[in-house]
Design a protein that fits this description.
Blueprint (H helix, E strand, L loop, with lengths): L8 E5 L5 E9 L1 E3 L2 E3 L6 E3 L5 E13 L6 E12 L4 E3 L2 E2 L1 E3 L14 E4 L2 E8 L13 H14 L4 H11 L5 H8 L3 E4 L36 H14 L5 E4 L11 H13 L5 E6 L4 H10 L3 E6 L4 H8 L6 H13 L3 E8 L7 H14 L3 E6 L4 H7 L12 H11 L4 E3 L29 H17 L2
């Protein structure tokens, strides 16, 4: 019987930007510092509303299936930026020139071509359609923007969300606010107490990143302006309204905790309904407790790793430590807050055995309810260098197996991509801090079988 195994071919681009596939060479992908063939379970058709990027200064590479050798091409490597709700499971493999420029702050997925279409290494982790805009005319969004600017001329926060986030940056959350649906962004903070390597709104003067995808908020909104945005959104999204502090165009919202506490308290005191969420680095446990008492529903904590050394290498915290992050998570759970981890996933580093153990302990010991599997937007080679080899050469479990094993260790855990609607207060199944212990797998368990099966896939990929 003929094999039905999907074997995508190498995709590359010429100097004019024309993208095409190689007739003979196979797609090769990268996980950390390791190259290999894509796993059968991680290939999926390129999702709608995704994009293809040309990678300057980087030569495409492919596998010759006859000789088993890697061949470097003159043409440029190509990567895929996956649509929201999809997490990339591998980066493209390429050979960089000595003068290759640093890649902008986007996520770069491995892409190939087979059976008349593009395929990427990715997994759909959320069925929510909140950031799908096909079928919605741009004209409709712009009409709503003009109407809201006319109706709320004195609210600077509304002006910022519409003029900057919608019209300038095409931010999905801001477009949803203009449409009156799903989740409303609430940027509030100009300052941050971390210096993230991949910050998308501000960089140090000596950073090699000269352009960020967004500019940071240039003013601090008032309580009245914030509450007016929340009321407006509740009046338009009446079924499942979500309001989120902590957006890409600001610093960390907990650096301005008093403003948030007063805004949430006033909104709730005036009958405000829906899920009030805060996206944050979770540096301040006291501020988290105050927000919980004011009426916060959920806390989304951003991190690239549950291992302190990798976390601090990327976040470069100022006046806090990873232990403060851990305390904030535990504090939130103790106050009845639904805690998500905004896990910035990097194939070949995040999906390692060492990370699995550290992440399971962070989730179980502190009462995390959900993981949002987000892509880390960064130049893949640069990130590996920044991690100084820590975990970048470890065997990759693959996202699917990693999620499966994590769920076995923490069976209450939800997986997704977006902040969930939870009403005003979530029903929590995550254990309270101190109420969980790491399970010990039994010999011959399904986990052992899964690992053995995945190892066979790794051996096959390593032959590339």
């Amino acid at each position: 019987m003929a094999s039905t195994r999907l074997t995508p071919h190498l995709v590359m681009a010429d100097s004019d930007g024309n993208i095409y596939d190689h007739p003979d060479l196979l797609m090769v992908c990268r996980r950390g510092t390791q190259w290999g063939l894509p796993r059968p379970d991680e290939l999926m058709p390129l999702p709608e509303e995704s994009e293809l990027f040309l990678l300057p200064g980087r030569h495409a590479v492919g596998l010759d299936p006859e000789s088993g050798s890697i061949e470097v091409q003159e043409d440029l490597a190509v990567a895929a930026f996956a649509a929201p709700a999809h997490t990339l499971t591998a980066h493209p493999a390429y050979e960089s020139q000595a003068d290759a420029p640093l890649l902008p702050l986007f996520a770069y997925g491995a892409v190939g071509y087979a059976r008349g279409r593009f395929y990427i290494c990715a997994k759909k982790v959320d069925q929510d359609t909140r950031q799908q805009f096909r079928g919605i005319p741009r004209k409709r969004i712009e009409q709503n923007v003009r109407r809201l600017l006319r109706d709320y001329p004195h609210n600077r926060l509304i002006g910022h969300i519409l003029n900057n986030c919608v019209l300038r940056y095409d931010c999905p959350a801001a477009r949803n606010f203009a449409l009156g649906r799903f989740e409303a962004p609430l940027p509030t903070s100009r300052a941050c107490n971390a210096r993230c390597i991949g910050c998308i709104s501000a960089q140090d003067k000596d950073s090699p990143i000269t352009v960020t995808p967004q500019c940071r908020l240039a003013f601090t909104p008032s309580v009245a302006e914030i509450v007016e945005v929340m009321r407006l959104h509740q009046g338009r999204e009446q079924a499942r309204p979500i309001y989120s502090f902590g957006q890409g165009c600001e610093g960390d919202p907990l650096t301005n905790a008093d403003l948030l506490v007063e805004s949430v308290h006033r909104f709730r005191a005036e009958g405000g309904l829906g899920t009030v969420n805060c996206n944050t680095n979770a540096s301040d446990p006291v501020a988290v407790a105050r927000l919980a008492e004011a009426g916060l529903t959920s806390l989304r904590v951003s991190l690239n790793s549950a291992r302190p050394e990798l976390y601090e290498r990327y976040y470069r915290p100022g006046n806090y430590s990873f232990e403060d992050v851990r305390k904030s998570i535990a504090t939130a759970r103790q106050h009845g807050i639904f805690v998500s981890l905004n896990l910035l996933f990097f194939p070949g580093v995040t999906d390692s055995e060492a990370e699995l153990e550290a992440l399971a302990r962070l989730v179980g010991e502190n009462g995390v309810s959900m993981i949002q599997w987000r892509n880390l937007n960064i130049d893949p080679e640069w990130y590996c260098k920044l991690m100084d080899g820590e975990g970048t050469g470890s065997p990759s479990l693959g996202l699917g197996l990693f999620m499966k094993r994590l769920t076995r260790l923490c069976p209450w855990l939800r997986h997704g991509y977006f902040n969930p609607w939870l009403g005003e207060r979530a029903e929590l199944t995550a254990p309270l801090p101190g109420g969980w212990q790491m399970p010990v797998p039994e010999a011959g368990s399904d986990t052992d079988a899964d690992t053995a099966e995945d190892d066979m896939g790794q051996d096959h990929a390593a032959q590339a």
